[in-house]
Amino acid sequence: MKWQGRDRSSNIEDRRGQGGGSSGGGYRGGFGGGFPPIGGGRTRGGGLGIVGVIVVLGLIWFVTGQNPIDILTNGGTMSSGPSSSNWTPSTNASEDELANFVGVVVKDTEDYWGEVFRASNETYTPPKVVLFSDTTQSGCGTAQSASGPFYCPNDRKVYIDLAFYDQLRRQFGAPGDFAQAYVIAHEVGHHIQNLTGVLPEFNRRRAAMSQEQQNAYSVRVELQADCYAGLWTNFARRQNYLESGDSEEAINAANAIGDDTLTRGRVSERNFTHGTAEQRMKWLKRGMESGDPAACDTFSGPI
Q: CA 179, 32, 274: angle at the middle one, nearest 5?
């Protein structure tokens, strides 16, 4: 990806080297959705949505053993301990370069979604992106590096421990800067869902859902975030930011973190929360090819 020398977002909150405060309490949540029109505060046809922490790549479940459905809405006890004020700037040059890369990608998402919202006579309010090390406090409780990158609707922030990207390359076999960009664009996609009403509406309705229904809706929400990441890829291509092989890096990452790939057949599909590798690649590519938010309706018909 052509990113060096380009503008970075001002919405980056760098907490690397800062202590994480007290450990987090329990989280609860679930999600589902009806496709929201861009700029609308409600979903079409009374559809569902989610509130809470939406964790990319299913790492909560598959790495820590905690069901990510229980982290999707904030229905449990949250940690309220203050973060340490002892902040030390990073001295890791390679990590600082990666932080600059994240800033450029976030700026690109701001440019794209700002354009989309303006087309509907709306104003886009971007999320803050928090860079942290090991643990930090979020509006959804304690963020931990083992949880992977996630979006917290309560404070409208995306949380990323940059060490995750090494894990993405080594453990999941998804190298390349554009695989890293895909992760960011996916989490920003959850912010779009929060702004357009997909996330809050489900929090109101989820009590009536069984766990299996919550899982099924979770898949649809995650696939829409993948499609939204594809929309941003389409934008980056139009801006001539892509290099040879970039799109393939993102598609490879989507394949590597499908629920079936991660669980290797050890978990029933009814317990999937992010979608199969085939589904994730399908919806990412749909966004890439269409460039149209309306093409990202994962809530109507089969997926």
A: 30
How many residues does this entry show for the chain?
303
Over residues 5-38, the pLDDT tens digits come to 999 999 999 999 876 543 332 222 222 222 233 3
- The DSSP annotation for the chain comes to ---TTS---S-EEE-TT----SPP---B------PPPTT-SS-GGG-----S-EEGGGHIIIII---GGGGTSB-SPPP-PPPP--------HHHHHHHHHHHHHHHHHHHHHHHHHHHTT----PPEEEEESSEEEETTEEEEGGG-SEEETTTTEEEEETTHHHHHHHTS---SHHHHHHHHHHHHHHHHHHHTTHHHHHHHHGGGS-HHHHHHHHHHHHHHHHHHHHHHHHHHHHTT---TTHHHHHHHHHHHT-HHHHHTT-S-GGG-SS--HHHHHHHHHHHHHH--GGGG-TTSS--
Instruction: Read off the pTM.
Output: 0.79
- Cα–Cα distance measured from residue 129 to residue 58, given in angstroms and rounded to the nearest whole number: 20
Above 80 in pLDDT, residue 45?
no
Query: Does residue 92 surpass a pLDDT of 80?
Result: no
Which residue's structure tokens are 């104003």? 123
Q: Kindly state the helix (H) or strand (E) to which residue 136 belongs, with its residue range.
A: strand 135-138
The residues facing 54 across adjacent strands are 151
Residue 86: is its pLDDT beyond 90?
no
Q: Quote the mean pLDDT of the chain.
A: 79
| 14, 198 contact by CB (below 8 A) | no
Q: What is the mean pLDDT of residues 271-289?
A: 96
